[in-house]
Amino acid sequence: MHENIFDHYEKKDKSSLIPLLQEVQSIYGYLPEEALSEISEFVGLPLSRVYGVATFYNQFRLTPLGKNVIRICRGTACHVKNSANILYSLEHELGILAGQTTRDKLFTIETVACIGACSIAPVININEEYYGRVTTKEIPKIIKKYRTEAEKSANTEKAAEGVK
Amino acid sequence: MVELTINNIKVKAEEGMTILDAAKSVGISIPTLCHIKDLIPSGACRICSVEVTGQRGLIPACAYPIYEGMNVETNSPRVRVARKTIVELLIENHPQDCLICVRNGNCELQDLSEKYSIREHRFKGEHKDHAVDISSASLERDPAKCILCGRCVRVCGEVQKVGAIDFINRGFTSIVSTPYNKGLNVSDCILCGQCILVCPTASLREKSTLKTVSDALNSRKKYTIAQIAPAVRATLGEEYNLPLGTDVTGKLVTGLKRLGFKRVFDTNFAADLTIMEEAHELIKRITNGETLPMFTSCCPGWVKFLEQNYGDLIGHLSTCKSPHEMEGALLKSYFAKKMGIDPHDVFVVSIMPCTVKKYESARPELNVENLSEVDAVLTTRELVRFFNIAGIEFGDLGESEFDNPLGESTGAAAIFGTSGGVMEAALRTAYYKLTNEHLADIDFEAVRGLDGIKETSLNINNIDINIAVVNGIGNAAPILDELREGKSKYHFVEVMACPGGCINGGGQPIHQKTDKVIKRMKALYEIDKKMVLRRSYENESIKKLYDEFLGEPGGHVSHELLHTHYVDRRKVRKVVVKK
Amino acid sequence: MKSFLEIKFNGELHSPENPKEDFIARCTNAKLNAGQESEVVLLNKKLKYEVNEVPIIFIGMDTSALASGAGKVKAAFEKELEAKNLEAVIVPTGGIGFGTLEPFVDIKLPNQDRIIYSQVNEKDVPKLVESVLINKEVYAKKAFATYGKGSDTIPNINDIPFFKPQIRVVLENCGIINPESIDEYIASGGFKALDKALRLMSPEEVVNEIVKSGLRGRGGGGFPTGKKWELALKQNADTKYLVCNADEGDPGAFMDRSVLESDPFKLVEGMMIGAYAIGASYGYIYCRAEYPLAIERLQKTIQQCKQYGLLGKNILNSGFNFELKIKKGAGAFVCGEETALLASIEGKRGMPKPRPPYPSVSGLWGKPTVINNVETFANISSIVNKGAEWFASIGTETSKGTKVFALSGKITNSGLVEVPMGITLEEVVFNIGGGIPDNKKFKAVQIGGPSGGCLPESVIKTQVDYESLKGVGAMMGSGGFVVMDEETCMVDIAKFFLTFIQTESCGKCVPCREGTKRMLEIIERIPTSYKGTKNKVDELQRFKGIIYLNRLSNVIRDTSLCGLGQSAPNPVLSGLQYFKEEYEEHLYERKCRAGVCKDLLTYSIDNTLCSGCGVCVRKCATEAILGEKGQAHYIIQDKCIKCGMCFEACRFDAVAVN
To answer: How far apart are CA B413 and CA B271, in angstroms?
Structure first.
């Protein structure tokens, strides 16, 4: 199982920096500090370069994400259809700002430039699920759905532990 | 040749030249900020924008090649407004604290503000605010003052190939920083200070020890001693508008005495001593078949680099301490004893061209009976500030001689301040030690100059001694990698972290004058040439020192006082990236 | 069903190891295959869905359709077919572009026309199955159009106003064929252009054809594609690269994604021809990581092309080698800029470099590199097939061919449209787009994304071509086409785009990094209330900023390093040009006529309508609403941050805004 991801890459190939970061992030959900050092050594670039690249691109994050990632589209089409208000009510509902994660690690709000589903603007995307033509009124309901799901799975986990 | 018109002046220039250079050739200056000569233009600051007929926007003179029939305007109203606006934008996101800034009066942004008559804050708004990084022993990093020209990043990454700092984040939030914005002390930085030399503002600066020194001078208990590095005497004059490469040794001694130092010695003395020890070590290594090649150890930036990146190779470093540490060690033992002073009261200040020396002086390995050998290091720039505070008119000072016995030196010591100098000095002595003959032609042209790697070999007693001189830490990696692979043919390798050697050290005067390195180098070789004694073993004081105190090179006392050891400081990295 | 690889041509199989130069020709031209004619003809007919034995259900499955629930529809069909024990094939296709009416399901019964059903959700599936598959009747409720002969009830697709004015070159296969099947692509005429180029044309001839066609880059700047190729062809280098920019970053644009998801082979074919023309043997597709489906389809496409010997060594026995790799972008709008994109492929921060040297001379790793965007490459095969004259006959004097736009915003029919250059904005908005919904008034169309401009009704007769759009202060851009109505505030839009540019600026050059920030600050100060302006200095700054806005804009445009910065002031400048009144209203009267700028709004509760339910109190983040339960509430204006949550929450319409 413990297949080293470096096996697929050539050592000292500087152009594999971004793919490596992407792969590491897909495993951990973020870029751990030790992983950056290791990548830096593998591709033969100073850590500062690796860190510079990691902080340049929107995709990379240096802190862990919440369980549910809410991506709100801030593209033009969504903007003219009031996605700013959707964002506001999301922030209000969860008590965090865009880019942050709730304390219970359940939700992260991210803004994205354009999801590309302009026809059903405004759009939010939670994990892989799309919500098109959303209104601020629906936000609490949507959030609640994920909250109860999380509670349920937490309960079943607890129950499973209890059985053990 | 290409013919073009700049400001209605017909210009003939070589093909491939940039507008900037072509304009310069006819006496038209175009301001630059991000430009570094000899590096690929980055085109970041846009201050060099000029108008070219037929082009939609303004174009950067530093990056744009000339072509036949080009018509350039460097001073049109459109260009002036653009440049002024750019300066205004930079100033608006810069702390407005020129009056209390270390670079007040020597700041490129300030100069531009003056040049373009900025008289109001046209675009007010948010400006960046960052904590100053004071973690390292040598440098301070103040991202709030950074105008993101990227010169430090390029010097650190492309010239020195250290890459301790880079741009992080993006857009308005971007700053130049270390990974995770941590302190320089835990970064890959070797503290060489080359970044300071190219920083247009005070975003990068040395950590000043002026206060410590001034306190010591004011203390009745302290017996303050100054020592001056070889390279300082060839550069300090620049701060007083003397021509590049003026030797100001005599004035320096007078000035330091006026500041209140009880004794002013010459680090060159210790440089001669270093040569005696180092040559002995080299001969020992060669004849006993010990670890070769031997690396010079007088550049603490280089030592730090090796410890951090090639910790497995520290056995190759000469165990000799660097000259000013040797001098300090002697001052706190030999000299103190001789003068009947408690070594605890001796306060040694090194006047150095270097920022890493500050870090070096704090290394715990470098001590005499748990006393640090050097108590404070002042850079050339700090000393000038000290002179100014003290009201010393440097230009009007008379000349004085160094104190003795630790003040006498030979020409071999003088050239320590330039790349190749240590090597040359060492060879002069090693030759004698091995053959008992004086080397006739002692000018080793092959190791002089500005090439990145300089090689030569010298036949001594039918052994070809292969030597290399690495000029600038950025050129060290190939030689080190070769060594790791077991393919090194060298016996002796000199490495200086700063390109050109100490004369271009991180503590030297800041200005972007061309040819500064060459001219300063020349000054040191002149000093050497004028000397009667040009070989370290001819130094009478050194002979006396060995007779009276040290015994012989590499002997017991030398070993205790003049030699040190190194630490493998490579980061231990856990394997975490698994699937 | 057999694949073309399994058909023996003159007793021999084509394979990457044993390439046949006339493989493509023989796939579609039965006459070349003695003794196999009928088999090849039938295979082609089947692949083109001209004949089928069992019903075929086509479901549009691009991201846009999936977001509208196409995945659930597919699952419902599978379930329903199994439950009813019916035999039918489900074919996932790309999207036909009519976003508003998605998901689309086409059903083709044997020997009948392919009928398109729109807005099919999973609940419709049982009825649809019963009506069409069991009763063999058209399900009129959801029937949208037919690919066959139209009737009064079900028009032919091309008679529908949304499609009628369109000319589909780039999008010709989108939504029609299965994007994951190379055989279908070949059967519908795919790789014919590659075949033609490799066998009958020299690289110079291909380049000349593109030059003659007048094709210009579809990514924004509109640089002539042929010229770019010519320059790269002239370079002597051991290695050359061809890069496809699929890092579509414009907010409100999804043209490229649609091609990538609905017809990836067309892109790859275009790239192959390009590579052959300039002499490149390596290619990269730089695709946004945010387009996982597109990347997946591209991977499958490359995989199949390799299997068919269309990528790799000695392609179709022509001696031409080409390898294609996908590079996932990591999310930086500035990587749409050529030099930044190359830096990103090299593993660096995506920061642009000064040009010259142009990438065609010194690009990726210092080698000659041609970069075109997806839509540009997708045009190539048609040009090679039908000739430069045909292509040049579409469009205007300086802008040839078609352009794909992503129509969105306050418009009835949103989606992807491909129109000939020279069509007027009016036609796109009102004929294809069907005008503004809810009886609102048209205000502006934003074209060209963050680099473009907002065009008002007064210039709506402007032709869509590079020069005309530039003339009125917008630009072609990559094809975002966002329609705005009276409820859109132009100051807010300027702020929106500047915020976007500001966060996407790479931070390298001063005018873009610092200048756009100051511009944004100036714009942000406009819609502030007296209360919001903290002191006299701020108040002065509010006007001073406006005075210097033009100067700042000009300097940013003049001196920025790359296109992102150079065009950053466009949204503001076009706003000031066409909507000056609205800006002045914000500035002097502190009024936002669209009711968008929060700081200028006041919320109040109509005490005759308020039931005192307290919903608004719970929603209010700043405790600005007071009132006893059951009694009319009121808002403390000093505390109100104008978030509008109470307005949204109120079930009695008691909260008023003005």
So the answer is: 5
Q: Which of C502, C548, C552 minimises the CB distance to B171?
A: C502
**Interchain CB distance below 8 Å, C67 and A120:** yes
The pLDDT of residue A2 is above 50: no
Task: Quote the tokens at residue B82.
Answer: 């653009």
CB contact under 8 A, A85 and C446: no
Interchain proximity C333–A19, CB inside 8 Å:
no
Q: What is the mean pLDDT of chain B?
A: 93
A52 and A72: one domain?
A: no
Let me know whether A78 and A49 are in one domain: no
The residue ranges of every structural domain in chain C are: 56-159, 182-393, 402-488, 491-589, 602-657
Catalytic residue check, B318: yes
Give the closest of B180, B188, B577 to A6, CB-based.
B577
Per-window interface: C 539-558 vs B, CB < 8 A: 541, 544-545, 548, 551-552, 554-555, 557-558
Residues A95 and A153 both lie in one domain = yes
Catalytic hit among B304, B502, B519, B538: B502
Are both B191 and B270 inside the same structural domain? no
* Residue numbers of the domain that contains B380: 210-562
Instruction: Please judge whether C503 and B171 are an interchain contact, meaning their C-beta atoms are less than 8 angstroms apart.
Output: yes
Torsion-angle region of residue B466: left (phi > 0), alpha (psi -120 to 50) or beta?
beta
Euclidean distance between CA atoms C547 and C585, whole angstroms: 16
For the cut 90, the answer to whether the pLDDT of residue B209 exceeds it is: yes
Dist CA B384 CA B208 (whole Å) = 12
Catalytic annotation present for B68 = no
Q: Which of B32, B89, B165, B201 to mutate: most C Cβ within 10 Å?
A: B89
CATH number, span C56-159: 3.40.30.10
Query: Which of B204-208, C12-16, C230-234 has the weakest average pLDDT?
Result: C12-16
For the segment(s) C182-393, the CATH number from 3.90.1150.10, 3.40.220.10, 3.40.50.11540, 1.20.120.140 is 3.40.50.11540
- Per-residue pLDDT reduced to its tens digit, C2-33: 788 888 777 788 899 989 888 998 888 877 77
* Domain C402-488: CATH class, spelled out: alpha beta
Selecting from C99, C332, C496 the residue whose C-beta is nearest the C-beta of A118 gives C99
Query: In which band, very low, low, confident or very high, does the pLDDT at C252 lie, cut at 50, 70 and 90?
Result: confident
Please give the Cα distance from C155 to B120 (Å, whole number): 68
* Chains touching C by CB (3 or more pairs below 8 Å): A, B
Q: Which residues of C touch B147 (CB under 8 A)?
A: 510
At B575, the pLDDT band (50, 70, 90 cuts) reads: low
Residue C233 has pLDDT above 90, yes or no: yes
* Tens of pLDDT, residues A47-89: 999 999 999 999 999 999 889 999 998 888 888 888 888 898 8
Contacts B166 to A, Cβ<8 Å: 46, 48-49, 51-52
Nearest by Cα to C255 from C369, C16, C76, C94: C94
Angle between helices C490-504 and C570-578 (to 10 degrees): 170
Chains near B (3 or more Cβ pairs under 8 Å): A, C
Q: Check if B156 is active-site.
A: no
Contacts of A18 in chain C (CB under 8 A): 327-328, 330, 344, 347
- Residue B239 contacts residue B385 (beta carbons within 8 Å): no
- Nearest beta carbon to residue C252 from set A15, A59, A118: A118
The pTM of the full predicted model, rounded to 2 decimals, is 0.92
The helix (H) or strand (E) run that includes residue A70 is strand A68-73
Q: Which chain A residues touch C411 with a CB distance below 8 Å? A: none
**How many domains is chain A built from?**
2
| Amino acid letter, C518 | R
Cα(C636)–Cα(C185) distance, integer angstroms: 65
Q: Is A61 within the bounds of a domain?
A: no
B/e letters for B562-574, b = 16+ CB within 10 Å, e = fewer, are bbbebeeeeeeee
Q: What is the CATH topology of the domain spanning C491-589?
A: de novo design (two linked rop proteins) (1.20.1440)
Domain boundary among B170, B185, B206: B206
